[in-house]
Amino acid sequence: MCSTIAGPRRLFDPSGDNVILQGGFDIACPESTDTTDSPTFTLDDEAPVFDDSDIERCADAGGCTSIVDYAAVTDNCGTPTVDCDPPSGSEFAVGTTTVECSAEDDCGNTSTWDFDVTINPCNVVNIEITLQGNSTTGPDTRCIKTVGDECSDVVHRELLFTDGVFDGQIEIACDDTSNLCVKDEQHTLYETSALTDVGTEYNAAAVTLKAGDTNNDSKVNIFDASWLSATFGDPHDPGGCPWNGDRDADFNNSGTVNAPDHSLMASNWQAKTVCACGAGLTGPDDAEDVKVQVLIGELPTEVGNRVDLVADGVFDHRDVFEFERLNGLPHTLSAAIQATARAQKDRASQNPGTGN
Q1: Number of domains in the chain
Q2: Domain ends where: 101, 120, 139?
Q3: Which is nearest to 334 in space by CA: 356, 301, 355, 307?
Q4: Beta carbons within 10 angstroms of residue 199's beta carbon
Q5: Judgement on whether residues 38 and 167 belong to the same structural domain of the protein
Q6: For residues 246 and 224, what is the distance between their CA atoms, to the nearest angstrom?
Q7: What range does the domain containing 65 cover?
Q8: What percent of the chain has pLDDT over 90?
């Protein structure tokens, strides 16, 4: 069969040869009437299609900019020529930038497209956080505080832990950050996690948060022991996010203050950690300034009325011993408090004028 193509027209062979004809042509007829091998031409009038929609992401790790690739284009006539402003692979600052693109395929069809690239002032961190002594099976939500190199870079967020472990992504303020302090303000001490820049994200060293700090002073001392004693057997207090100041000694997140919580406090007695922002944690475990006794009048009334078990107006290791006896607990916490008190007394006798 003979065909005449009125020009100017552009055609292609969908079999893959991409034969392009331009102008007016007579396609010669073979002498044979057998058209089995005759080429079939199809008119292409489909414009290239952009695959990109609006892009929104955190800045790349280590700063407040991000290198963004885009402008993937599909077409049925060869590989289109693409031109974008700014071009793909450009560095974008925090904020929203409109990108304008155009494309032309091998058959002369053109299209234009514009979309927004939004860079948020955050960096993504991959981190694993373990709650020491957690007894919850399945999911449990805790409010976790993080502090970056700049002490003002504070974020509180609810994280979903599974069997006491969160393994996922969090967002922090965009910056060149080296360390991240991590804390459950209602239950734990600080831990520090070193960050490694892996390009678009940070990888953080895994941390385990030590339990025992009920008043968010970054120490495990006599005030925490008084709260454990006063609330033993009580239900868990949620505490809000950010932490609303409601104290709680359910360190193992079982729903009730119980024997494992006593064990956790005993194991972490006199521990203290302080977040020094970019320097990570300071303040190693030290009995020097750990409070080992407190006047009942210094405690909240509802606490003092429940913990002065030896009725001497002071809460110390003797009250803790009696609390342990009444509840069938090992005398591990009272022994630890007594040992600290003795160490402080010995230092004071060797260095008059110092000590608690």
Answers
A1: 3
A2: 120
A3: 307
A4: 9
A5: no
A6: 13
A7: 49-120
A8: 66
Residue 254 clears pLDDT 50, i.e. is over it: yes
Whether 24 and 149 share a structural domain: no
Do 56 and 6 fall into the same domain? no
Nearest to 29 by CA among 47, 2, 5: 2
Q: Which residues pair with 294 in a beta bridge?
A: 315
Identify whether residues 82 and 227 lie together within a single domain: no
Rounded-to-5 percentages of helix, strand, coil across the chain: 15, 35, 50
Q: What is the mean pLDDT of residues 216-233?
A: 96
Q: How many CB atoms sit inside 10 A of residue 295's CB?
A: 11
Q: Is residue 310 part of a domain?
A: yes
The reply to whether 257 falls in a domain is yes
Residues 7, 25 contacting (CB under 8 angstroms): yes
Question: Is the separation of the CB atoms in 345 and 355 below 8 Å?
Answer: yes
Residue 43 is which amino acid? L
Angle at 86 between CA 82 and CA 92, to 5 degrees: 135
What does the pLDDT average to over 105-119? 91
Q: What pTM was computed for the model?
A: 0.81
Q: CA-CA-CA-CA torsion for 275, 293, 237, 189, nearest 10 degrees?
A: 20
